[in-house]
Amino acid sequence: MFFVPMVAMDGWMMADDGGGGMVTSSQAIRKPFPRIRFTNYNRALQSPLMMTNNGHTANIVLPLTNNGQRAFIEGGLLPGTFEAQSVHFHWGSANSRGSEHLINGQRYDVEMHIVHKNVRYATVAEASLRSDGLAVLGVMLQAVPSLISTHFGLNRILDRLPQVIEYQSSTTIAGRLTMNDLLGDISTGRFYSYNGSLTTPDCAESVTWTVFSDSVKLPRRQVAKFWDLLDERSLPLINNYRNPQEINGRPIFQRTLI
Ligand SMILES: [Zn+2]
Asked: What's a GO cellular component annotated to this UniProt protein (predicted)?
């Protein structure tokens, strides 16, 4: 099992307009580095697409795409080519927000993490021990009063959450779905990037984070489905985010648009 990115290494505070203890725009280093290049993100994922309540989050294991390859990313500050492995979420509760990163001092309702593994390494477990092993894309989800769902991909997933309320329950997400469907219409050219560390004793720095500035808006009634999930003790699985950590002089980069 792979729990590391959900509980152990997320959560540097980021803000570009100030705020208590957070990185300000003068601290985020603006650089004109390349945009992220997405390959096979436009291809249908093979079925079945499985989502499981693992007691920490709703986790989707990503299959190959319909050309027999994985969806993968390059560019940005990524030290190599990284294949999409899994998707999971961090959320709050009916009266709290649950994103792990703060942008402009704002915590969002939900944060989606798309976990990628460097193609140099055979498994996620091996990659998580290497400094260039993992890359995670962070996408902020914002609950809005609207009743109308315009985000096709995420709504398909959120519609299935009632099937994974119990710990260790699984469900399949039927129909054609691409990685681009998960990203929706966010502008992927605007993002922050930094190297995050594990909290294991050796503090290996294995994750290159890419956190998009743009957020996805979803009806609040859809976001509310996360709050019904239960953990291994049958208690509400809420607020499954790690509190932001001190920056410790770690550089956070912000992509500037050329
Ligand atoms: Zn996570």
From this structure: cytoplasm
- Cα(42) to centroid(ligand 1), Å: 23
Count of domains for the chain: 1
20 Cα: distance to centroid of ligand 1 (angstroms): 23
Spatial distance between the Cα atoms of 153 and 67, rounded to a whole number of angstroms: 20
List beta partners, residue 75: 36
**What is the span of the domain harbouring residue 127?**
4-255
131-175 pLDDT, tens per residue?
899 999 999 999 999 877 778 899 999 999 999 999 999 999 988
Domain holding 188: CATH number?
3.10.200.10
Q: What angle do CA 9, 63, 143 make, to 5 degrees?
A: 55
pLDDT value of residue 35: 94
| Assigned token pair, 95 | 């009266």
Would you say residue 71 has pLDDT above 70? yes
Strands, DSSP E only, in 67-206?
Answer: 72-75, 82-91, 102-103, 106-107, 110-118, 134-144, 170-173, 191-196
Burial class (CB in 10 A: 0-12, 13-18, 19+), 220: middle
Establish whether 116 is a catalytic residue: no
